[in-house]
Design brief:
The chain has a single domain, classed as 2-Layer Sandwich (Signal recognition particle alu RNA binding heterodimer, srp9/1). Helices cover 34% and strands 38% of the residues. The chain is built from two helices and four strands; from the N terminus they run H-E-E-E-E-H. It starts with a helix and ends with a helix. This is DUF1797 domain-containing protein. It comes from Peribacillus muralis.
Length: 79
């Protein structure tokens, strides 16, 4: 998945901020990452959840979130 596609996906998640949408990234049917956009005090925060470890990461910057996501999906393994 190209970096620009990830940024577009993140933008779309935030566009629908009145609805709870979670995007799941999977490799061979195994969930490696779940992403959602939270609207906290009119600021978009990206919540990245790594299902294998239950670690939750938060990013307030779209470029920062995109970098974390592309790093994980390029490896194809949980963080």
């Amino acid at each position: 998945m190209k970096n620009e596609h990830v940024k577009n996906l993140l933008s779309e998640l935030c566009y629908f901020d009145e609805v709870d949408i979670t995007h799941t990234f999977s490799v061979d049917g195994i969930r490696i990452l779940q992403v959602k956009c939270l609207n906290i005090d009119s600021q978009h925060i990206f919540e990245l959840t790594y299902p294998d470890s239950d670690i939750v990461d938060f990013h307030s910057d779209i470029a920062e979130a995109e970098k974390a996501i592309t790093s994980i999906i390029s490896k194809g393994i949980p963080a």
